[in-house]
Design goal:
The structure holds 2 protein chains of 2 kinds.
Chain A: H1 3-6, H2 24-37, E1 45-49, E2 64-67, H3 73-83, E3 88-94, H4 95-101, H5 103-112, E4 117-122, E5 125-126, E6 132-133, H6 157-164, E7 168-173, H7 177-189, E8 194-199, H8 206-209, H9 215-225, E9 226-228, H10 229-234, H11 237-246, E10 248-255, H12 262-275
Parallel strand pairs in A: 1-2, 1-3, 3-4, 4-8, 7-8, 9-10
Antiparallel strand pairs in A: 5-6, 7-10
Helix pairs in contact in A: 2-7, 4-5, 5-6
Chain B: E1 14-15, H1 25-29, E2 35-37, E3 43-45, H2 56-60, E4 66-67, H3 72-79
Antiparallel strand pairs in B: 1-4, 2-3
Chain lengths: 276, 80
């Protein structure tokens, strides 16, 4: 039995709801392997999700799970973390869930630097509700609400998180399984707010509207489009900007261990006030 | 120096057809081109002699439908 099967709720409805060729399952597999590698007991993990394709994930896994309202996964997770600081809280969210509807919550959680791990599944559209344009849709790409091509500039998840003050920011793609596994393990271990953006595909709606091929082809395309952060740093400055727009830069983009963590500060304040 | 005994793991992979969605990702990520499709489109491990047991197919299967142990076959059938 592979590692992942030990953590599945096998008696729940399997096969899962995701379409054929969707890579959400691969990202979940990497998350599970990271948790297994760190040897965290099942009872010490809390998976929180909002609404969306990716947010269906906690239903299938045998941890403490919480399936909440659209965009409000991070507020629920913040509350859980403050009450039970020993839990490893992992928030699983999509691009529309985290950046459009829960955009403000995302920014404020970054500012607070609370010890959560947020995994953003970025598939460039709202898959579950029928392929509407999301904040990360690249310009010129078709969705059901932008049938002639989107003209809005996209949101860069990692730049947003870094600007708002998240202390661990990384980006991977669904193709890079082993790097993804180690990056998620580092993100879980990190004390502070960590954001992992995972580029994945949506072959059924977004892929079909933009003629990008089936799931397997879109997965291989992710490999060709990506570039490691080490290779990117070696480029001359004028090429760096061009590469940033054309390529997916993968790797750990920011790691800061000096900023104080919110839960600890909160506990210290409580103790200080109780001593009075 | 004592010689290390090399214990070769028995290569065995099987597909749970009730979970498989026939997306073709397992055949795409296989480095040795072991996997073929049958007439219904399900993956078949046709050239197991070439298999290097990297388990890429197990890792990349988005439906967790590929199993690497023979013993699980009975267990999984039981719970389904």
């Amino acid at each position: 039995m592979a590692v992942v099967h030990k953590y599945l709720r096998l008696k729940k409805k399997f096969p899962h709801v995701w379409c054929a060729g969707c890579t959400n399952g691969i990202i979940l597999h990497a998350t599970i392997r990271a948790i297994d590698k760190l040897k965290i007991p099942k009872d010490d993990v809390l998976m929180v999700s909002g609404i969306g394709c990716s947010s269906r994930a906690p239903v299938y896994f045998d941890f403490n799970t919480l399936h909440t309202t659209h965009g409000r996964a991070i507020p629920f997770a913040t509350g859980a973390k403050l009450v039970k600081p020993h839990l490893k809280v992992i928030v699983i969210t999509g691009d529309g869930d985290a950046l459009a509807i829960g955009g403000n919550h995302f920014i404020h959680a970054c500012v607070r630097n609370i010890d959560l791990t947020v995994i953003v599944f970025n598939n460039f559209n709202y898959g579950m509700t029928g392929g509407q344009r999301s904040p990360t849709t690249p310009p010129g790409k078709r969705t059901t609400t932008s049938p002639f091509g989107s003209i809005d500039p996209p949101v860069n998840v990692c730049s947003l998180a870094m600007g708002a003050g998240a202390t661990f920011v990384a980006r991977t793609t669904a193709y890079h399984f082993r790097p993804m596994e180690s990056i998620i393990a580092r993100a879980i271990q990190h004390k502070g707010f960590s954001v992992v953006e995972v580029r994945c595909n949506c072959p059924i709606i977004y892929g079909r509207l933009n003629r990008l091929g089936d799931g397997a082809k879109m997965l291989l395309d992710l490999k060709e489009q990506s570039m490691t952060v080490e290779a990117w740093k070696k480029l001359p400055p004028e090429k760096q900007k061009k590469a940033e727009q054309e390529k997916i830069i993968i790797g750990v983009l920011k790691e800061d261990t000096k900023t104080p963590e919110y839960t600890e500060q909160y506990r210290a304040l409580c103790e200080q006030l109780q001593a009075l | 120096m004592a010689q290390k005994k090399k214990v070769e793991k028995e290569k065995y992979l099987w597909v749970n057809r009730r979970w498989c969605k026939r997306c073709g990702i397992c055949a795409t990520v296989c480095p040795k081109n072991v996997i073929d499709y049958d007439s219904e489109g399900y993956p078949v491990f046709a050239r197991m002699d070439d298999c290097i047991y990297c388990l890429n197919c197990v890792l990349y299967c988005p439906d967790y439908a590929i199993f690497e142990n023979k013993e699980d076959q009975e267990y999984v059938k039981e719970i389904l």
